[in-house]
């Protein structure tokens, strides 16, 4: 679990891309969320990302751009970050449920459901409220994240299938 918290922090070394329309940058760190869920399963992935969020809370500069601290979580991008443990748990839960039939295509689907939709369902309303944008503007502005998030969903699914073959960490709870 600590390894995936560290992996998510390492993905924060890639510089964030600031977006003109919304006050939350594009980062690579949601790839860590998807990978944790797809490789570790629900409980361990949720715990790994909860650990990561706790590192942010105590002020460690583990977010993209060297950010950290409670102030970041209370800002416009805080909802996205707070969603990561839930998102990793959902990706892991779906992966566990369909472990026997897990393929790259299913992995992409579960990464999109957990690692994109869950993150957006929590992050966009938070950004609209805290960033004083209005929900419509936050929703439309967030469309800029979609191409990168879909790319991360594909990468995480390919990695998960490869890891599953070499060293399966998830127990079979499949349907």
Please characterize this protein's 3D structure:
The chain has helices at residues 2-11, 29-40, 42-57, 70-73, 78-97, 104-130, 135-141, 146-166. Helix 2 packs parallel to helix 8 and helix 5 (78-97) packs antiparallel against helix 6. 46% of the residues are buried. With 175 residues, the chain is mainly alpha-helical. The longest helix is centred in the last third of the chain and has 27 residues, at 104-130. The two termini are 25 Å apart. The chain has one domain (2-166): Arp2/3 complex 21 kDa subunit ARPC3, CATH 1.10.1760.20.
CATH class value: Mainly Alpha
Please trace the helix and strand order, writing H or E for each element.
Answer: HHHHHHHH
Give the quaternary arrangement of the chains. single chain
What is the overall silhouette? globular
CATH architecture grouping: Orthogonal Bundle
Structural class: mainly alpha
Helix content: 55-70%
Strand fraction equals: under 5%
Q: Mean pLDDT across all residues, rounded? A: 93
| Number of β-strand runs | 0
CATH topology: Arp2/3 complex 21 kDa subunit ARPC3
Largest sheet: none
Radius of gyration: 15 Å
SSE layout and pairing:
Blueprint: H1 2-11, H2 29-40, H3 42-57, H4 70-73, H5 78-97, H6 104-130, H7 135-141, H8 146-166
Defining traits:
175 residues; mainly alpha; Arp2/3 complex 21 kDa subunit ARPC3; 8 helices
What's the short version?
The protein is mostly helical and 175 residues long. It has 8 helices and no strands.
């Amino acid at each position: 679990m600590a390894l995936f918290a560290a992996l998510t922090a390492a993905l924060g070394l890639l510089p964030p891309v600031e977006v003109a329309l919304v006050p939350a940058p594009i980062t690579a760190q949601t790839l860590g969320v998807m990978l944790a869920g797809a490789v570790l399963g629900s409980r361990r992935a949720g715990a790994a990302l909860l650990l990561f969020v706790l590192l942010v809370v105590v002020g460690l500069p583990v977010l993209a751009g060297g950010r950290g601290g409670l102030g970041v979580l209370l800002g416009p991008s805080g909802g996205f970050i707070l969603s990561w443990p839930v998102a990793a748990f959902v990706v892991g839960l779906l992966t566990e449920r369909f472990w026997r039939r897990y393929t790259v295509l299913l992995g992409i689907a579960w990464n999109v459901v957990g690692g994109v939709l869950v993150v957006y369902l929590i992050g966009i309303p938070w950004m609209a409220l805290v960033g004083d944008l209005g929900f419509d503007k936050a929703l439309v502005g967030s469309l800029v994240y979609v191409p990168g998030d879909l790319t991360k969903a594909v990468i995480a699914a390919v990695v998960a299938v490869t890891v599953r073959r070499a060293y399966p960490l998830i127990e079979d709870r499949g349907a």
